[in-house]
Specification:
With 223 residues, the chain is an alpha/beta fold. It has one domain: Spore Coat Polysaccharide Biosynthesis Protein SpsA, Chain A (Alpha-Beta Complex). The chain is built from 6 helices and 11 strands. It catalyses: 2-C-methyl-D-erythritol 4-phosphate + CTP + H(+) = 4-CDP-2-C-methyl-D-erythritol + diphosphate. Its EC number is 2.7.7.60. One of its GO terms (molecular function) is 2-C-methyl-D-erythritol 4-phosphate cytidylyltransferase activity.
Length: 223
């Protein structure tokens, strides 16, 4: 599943980051091309209600593409996609959720993530250890203290879980007004075990305009 209904306000007030071009191809098409390297039964794109562009794109394995309406926030888009999936998939099937603006994930990371989840029979996410020194900063921008980075990891996507388990976790978190920043946070709140699988630092998420050029360079180097 790829939630692609977000406005991406940190990137631009008027332009959607998933539809920016890299090498004459949109970011979203690059992202679909990467995850389609896995032997997926299909993929679901959760798009905005006013989005008339997504379904005109030449996605990889277009015969396996499904579209559904996204929601106000990422979590609502994921929940809508899960409900759509359950109209033809089994609740015990595995589902990967991947950011629309994360086009540089490698097939090696994708394969390792899936293999580890199936082997352990637990949900899993790609992540990398935090490298830089972390500072806790007050509202006036003065440092309060240095935070130990030991045991801290930076979460990435894809994140993989059983369809039914993830749906139940998201619904439970929403009912209890818990802030959900990724799929793992909902699973954690339910007390589910989530495994961390080593990712790569070049699996960046395009968040700000200068990230687009970095993604361009990464894709060029990977090819």
């Amino acid at each position: 599943m790829i939630p692609a209904a977000g406005s991406g306000s940190r990137f631009s007030k008027t332009e959607l980051k998933q539809y920016q071009y890299i090498q004459n191809t949109t970011v979203l098409e690059h992202t679909v091309r990467r995850v389609s390297q896995l032997p997926l039964n299909g993929y679901v794109l959760a798009i905005g209600t006013q989005d008339t562009f997504a379904q005109t794109l030449a996605f990889q394995n277009i015969d396996k593409a499904h579209f559904c309406m996204g929601g106000a926030e990422r979590v609502h888009s994921v929940l809508n996609a899960l409900n759509h999936l359950l109209t033809f998939a089994d609740e015990n099937d595995w589902v990967l959720v991947h950011d629309a603006a994360r086009p540089c994930v490698t097939i090696e990371c994708l394969n390792t993530l899936v293999e580890q989840a199936i082997k352990s029979n637990h949900s899993a996410i790609l992540a990398i250890p935090v490298r830089d020194t972390l500072k806790q900063v007050r509202v006036d921008n003065y440092i309060n203290k240095t935070v130990s980075r030991d045991s801290l990891w930076q979460a990435q996507t894809p994140q993989i879980a059983k369809i039914g388990k993830l749906k139940k976790a998201i619904e439970y978190a929403l009912e209890n007004n818990i802030a959900i920043t990724d799929e793992a946070s909902a699973l954690e709140y339910m007390g589910e075990t989530v495994q961390v699988v080593m990712g790569r630092s070049d699996n960046i998420k395009i968040t700000y305009p200068d990230d687009l050029e970095l993604a361009r360079l990464i894709l060029q180097s990977q090819s």
